[in-house]
């Protein structure tokens, strides 16, 4: 007997006469409209539907034979699964006479199958499914991939099942599975675990990368070693087989010697799968594989073997649209031209980041990791002008838009904050840039960097806004040659204890050289770079599309700024200046923010210290403090179990976000 409850439960997602999920027919274009709560409901309905096997055909029951972990399914796969179940429901809701006709056809087919051997073979041929990929026929190898992506349209690098936007890892997974470079049992579940996977950096939502690196074991064209004949229990038979094998080997060598052109040995690059080209055909155009490494050092890990990460944060000069001098308030005139940054002061402040420092006041604290060591080594920190860009706005050269001291050349100019370090904390770069912008606007002195780095005197971070994420780029990752001791060492930090993969206090080489021998696209075949589907050809299309947008926006802005004559003042009594006490403050992003009187950082509300944040998180799960929690064996598993219990009981998650506190009198 069918279970009507299963049909009724699944129908909750349907509008009458319409498809599941969106009140209409599902399609790829509708996937982006799915909210997190709706996706969670769909996952629940899928599990409920899978519990009613009497409703499903034999093929459908095979699909749910093993319980699927829908929490790890990407959004597209969930929608595809819902559509499959819709089709199953439609088939079961057909008229009784059609069902009887199907059963009659099945009986006739069964009779035909059992009639003769020829009919049996014909029926089996019809039922024969497409041959599945057999991973046992292929060897595998551990390789590294160096790739770039524009992160504006992605929810960061790391896969998150509940995210509204796709992640870079999700796109990589789909390309690797579709190309059969990896062959998971459940292709719809994103799980890199079995493939010796490692990643160098975990960029956040909107952040780009030009030198991201992963390590992964993939399918290879290298021939599998020939299997030796099995030995029997009889010694005489074994001797005979061995003599026969020796004679066969001699005959083979003799035959090979008579051949003028012998087959060359397998080449690890020329005969290998063109990994970069294969993946680039399947990846979105804003994710490109640039190089791969066939030979990796022992115990290679993209995360822990990396000893230097380079970031660049791009910004313009002026940072935002300046006002004509005739419209500026007196306050702005005394503090310099609004919109223009003091690059020399920013560079002076940036140099103070170099060396080993405690950066707890330049990051966002994640209590789930219980980090206690915030020391990081910065090899280099500077402000650099980009010389090879041209997108002038001629109106900025007019005297009323220039700063008092004037400026050289055409504008706007483009600069970037260049930083090289061993490792970085969560949102560290964006916090560093935010403070540099305050220095560049004359709102804070360069010495504010030293004050924030003095955590003994200032253990709590002032409440300030970090810079926008889009201009930030993970520029490169450096893998220097490691000693045998370093390569074989047990790497700390894998448990998330906040330690770096090497001691930041230790003296190290600040001018590291990458030791990985990368095979860049174009080095194997130049046409893979400049051909019809070459890397440069594809990236040119991406660049030109965005360049046309920039040119049109540039010309429109310059046209609008030059056309009106603001001295005409056609409306009598119209305000010729912004309200008093209102100041533009640049905090990153595309525009300045209108603020009142600027409040210096250390006169603002202070956030909870790192110790207080960690303790509050632990107390939310019933521990006395963070120390007691971290001493508990497998405390992360305990936290997960308590989270599950809280969800079932309707309780909210434990606190742990950076919480404002009052400054202590001491």
UniProtKB/TrEMBL annotation:
InterPro entries: PsdUridine_synth_cat_dom_sf (IPR020103), PsdUridine_synth_TruA (IPR001406), PsdUridine_synth_TruA_a/b_dom (IPR020097), PsdUridine_synth_TruA_C (IPR020095), Pus3-like (IPR041707), TruA/RsuA/RluB/E/F_N (IPR020094). It comes from the Eukaryota. The keyword tRNA processing applies. Keywords: Isomerase, tRNA processing. Residues 349-480 form the Pseudouridine synthase I TruA alpha/beta domain. Pfam families: PseudoU_synth_1. Residues 488-507, 631-666 are annotated as: Disordered. Belongs to the tRNA pseudouridine synthase TruA family. This is Pseudouridylate synthase.
